[in-house]
Description:
Layout: E1 2-6, E2 12-16, H1 23-29, E3 49-52, H2 57-60, H3 65-71, E4 81-83, E5 96-100
Parallel strand pairs: 1-5
Antiparallel strand pairs: 1-2, 3-4, 3-5
The site of FE2/S2 (inorganic) cluster has 14 residues, from loops.
Amino acid sequence: xxxxxxxxxxxxxxxxxxxxxxxxxxxxxxxxxxxxxxxxxxxxxxxxxxxxxxxxxxxxxxxxxxxxxxxxxxxxxxxxxxxxxxxxxxxxxxxxxxxxxxxxx
Length: 105
Ligand code: FES
């Protein structure tokens, strides 16, 4: 499945991420700037913060409680904020669009 990361300046980076991998792992494998994944995907660092495009929010789901707590430490948090290590790729997310948070860029 394909995910498009959009930088704060509007530059788009479409990448393929295999099913079962997290969006954060896919970003790291493709050297997407602004997604660091410092904790290795354990919902414990907040450096994989993204904004999920409106039309995808239903399919990615909402922040878990643990994720919500961790996001308290991230900058620029909004309603559509997610930690993308907590979004697992599957065919239903093919075409997903996420925006990289300005504060991390
Ligand atoms: Fe650390 Fe997602 S990689 S919270």
